[in-house]
Design brief:
The protein is α+β, with helices and mostly antiparallel strands and 76 residues long. 36% of the residues lie in helices and 16% in strands. The protein has 3 helices and 2 strands.
């Protein structure tokens, strides 16, 4: 599933996602995951972090709780 499809599934507004730094790597993703962020979909604490390329918005963080992460994976 591409980033646009994922955001439609989550009913998320792309302009509200926080920007991810250029050149972010696995270490940056792990650091983000350990920080306190809310799940984009439900507002619960996020367990996962990913970087999605939203073209017109650039690379953004996608923070999801485990339940919503699995729901997105299963919809793929």
């Amino acid at each position: 599933m591409n980033a646009d499809g994922m955001l439609r599934l989550l009913a998320a507004e792309p302009s509200l996602l926080p920007s991810a730094p250029d050149g972010a790597d696995g270490k940056a993703i792990e650091t983000r995951r350990r920080e306190r962020h809310d799940c984009l979909r439900c507002g619960e604490p996020a367990d996962t972090a990913a970087i999605v390329d939203l073209h017109e918005y650039g690379k953004c963080w996608l923070d999801l709780c485990y339940r919503d992460f699995i729901a997105v994976q299963n919809a793929n």
